[in-house]
Every structure is written in structure tokens, then in C-alpha cells.
Amino acid sequence: MSNPDPENLLPSILIVDDMPANIRVLADTLKSDYRVRVATSGAKALEVAAGSPPPDLILLDVMMPEMDGYEVCRRLKDDPRTSTIPIIFVTAKDEAEEEAHGLGLGAVDYITKPFHLAIVRARVRTHVNLKRKTDLLDSLASLDGLTHIPNRRRFDDLLKQEWARAARDGTSLAVAMLDVDSFKSYNDHYGHGRGDECLRRVADALRARLQRPADVVARYGGEEFVLLLPNTDAAGALALAESCRAAVSALRIPHDYSAAADHVTLSIGVAATRPPGESASLLLARADEALYRAKSEGRNRVCA
Ligand code: GH3
Ligand code: MG
Ligand code: MG
Ligand code: MG
């Protein structure tokens, strides 16, 4: 096994300044503790910040030709891809009004030139640590503790985002509601611990079926899961749902008390639409109705 590149473990910092000499001073003092990237214009800074992976912090000059630092800050805060990256202004503008303006735009700190390098390092370290903790809390708040897939809160956020994107791009969007068959009797006969283990294995199998990066499987609640499938029409969603049903059935988790089979199975309801048209909640309601039909028609099946 190859060792991970230690460079990739360091937090990354983007230094933005139109004067290469200024960049050099900051880069020299930060490069032993951070992965340093640089941009000599506002436009370039926006491009790097929105790239992958995004920087953990941005040091931003104010006075630059074409686009000044305030405008760069405004645009970074407006873009959901970059809005949470902490920004520290580093500038010769030392009037209180300027500092208040910069902080008012959402920067976490404001350092005036000439600066003391030890103070720059200390402030950078403080804000990078804070950012890491915030990121950790965000990821914990959006994952289901049992299965480690996104939870319902995260699903609701993603549905909103994908709904807006589909409306903007004129693409279709599909969802599927998945429910473990006869899971109450599984718990009753095999115990809650085995029930939990079963939910984890189902979640893993579902995650393994999803091929496209934009596809999401989340735990909707209890023994119910949900798929969010951007850019997918009804036929595509039906095919993927069927492969999910088959994958869980193929686990052959014994279930002697199921109304559907001698092993653990899923019933699935699928719905697709082209936003805006109907609402997102109507789309989910249609998937739920289809799930109800799958149950009443005998379980272990997909309905649309
Ligand atoms: P159906 O085929 O109609 O879906 O029947 P069902 O028994 O699966 O449906 P019901 O909604 O009656 O039961 C769901 C069960 O899922 C009841 C609950 O105890 C169990 N359950 C919900 N969340 C968890 C969990 O986190 N762990 C375990 N072990 N069981 C859970
Ligand atoms: Mg400048
Ligand atoms: Mg249920
Ligand atoms: Mg069930």
C-alpha cells in the first residue's frame, strides 16, 4: 500500500495579491504548515476557490486592478460553493472604516500592512482550526449515526438544491422511497441488534449500486431509505430501483418471518418529474403512493 501524500493532509491556503512580492512573503512564512496556492487577480482567485478541493482559508488583498478584494469577497460569499471559506483581508488600508467594511462583508479577520509574520501565522492557525471544527460538525449533523449515509435533514437540503438545479437546467429529477419488508417481525424474532446490523448492510448495498456522483441514498427514517437521482427520467429511475431491490435480495439475509420471501427484501416506489411543474413534496408523495402499491401488490417489488 502506498503512503498518502503528506502534502494532501495539510490544510490549504489561497493567497490573493496582485503583487508577487507580497505573495512571496506570506507564502514563505506559511508553506511549512500549509499547502499554499496563489492568485494574482480577483478573477483567478474566484476560479481557484470554486475548484476542488476548495481552500480552507483565503488571504485576500484589497487593492487590486480590475476586481478589488471587497468585490472578490462579495462574490465568494454569494456562491454556495465558496460561501463558508474563511477570508482574512491583508491590506495597507488601515482606517477603521475600511476594516469595518471588510468585516461587514463577512471576512473573519482583517490584518493591516505592514504586518508582523508571527501574528499572521497565529491568526491563520486560529481560523483554520475553527474551520476544521465547523466542517466536522456539519458532516456529523448531516450523517445518519447507524448507517453513515446522509440523514433526512441532509436529504431535504439536497432535494432543494437539486430541484433548483433541475428547474434551471430543464432536466428531470427522480426520487425513490425504499422500505424494508416485514421489518417489525425481523426485530421481534432476531432482536434489535441484528435489526441494526441488517439496516447497515442494506445501506451499504444501496450505496454500492449508485454509480453517478450526483446520485444520493439517504436514510429517510426507521427502515425507510430514499434515493435522489438528478438528471434521471422515470425509466432510468425504475431500472436503478430494480437493481437496488435485486442487490438487497441478493444479500440473502435470512428472514423466516417475512410476508414476502425467506430473506430480507425491499419494496420501492419511484416517481420522476421535470421541475418546476409540481412541487418537490408532491414528487415525494407520488413515490410514497407507488411504495404503498408495491406493498399491497405483495412486497419485494418496484412500482412507479
Ligand atoms: P412492511 O412490510 O409493511 O413495511 O412492514 P414493517 O414491519 O416493515 O413495517 P412497520 O412500519 O410496522 O415496522 C417498521 C419497524 O422498523 C418497526 C421498528 O421497530 C423498526 N425500526 C425502525 N428503526 C429501526 C432501527 O433503527 N433499528 C432497528 N433495529 N429497527 C428499527
Ligand atoms: Mg494590491
Ligand atoms: Mg416503514
Ligand atoms: Mg417496512
From TrEMBL:
**Mind telling me what this protein is named?**
diguanylate cyclase
Enzyme Commission (EC) number: 2.7.7.65
Q: Which residues form the Response regulatory domain?
A: 12-128
- Chain positions found as 4-aspartylphosphate: 61
The domain of life for this entry's organism is Bacteria
Q: Which UniProt keywords apply?
A: Phosphoprotein
Give the signal sequence positions.
none
Native source organism of the sequence: Allochromatium tepidum
* InterPro entries for the chain: CheY-like_superfamily (IPR011006), Diguanylate_Cyclase (IPR050469), GGDEF_dom (IPR000160), Nucleotide_cyclase (IPR029787), Rev_trsase/Diguanyl_cyclase (IPR043128), Sig_transdc_resp-reg_receiver (IPR001789)
The top EC class, named as a word, is transferase
UniProt xrefs under Gene3D superfamilies: 3.30.70.270, 3.40.50.2300
Which SMART domains does its entry note? GGDEF (SM00267), REC (SM00448)
Catalytic reaction(s) noted: 2 GTP = 3',3'-c-di-GMP + 2 diphosphate
Q: Which residues form the GGDEF domain?
A: 171-304
The answer to keyword Phosphoprotein applying to this record is: yes
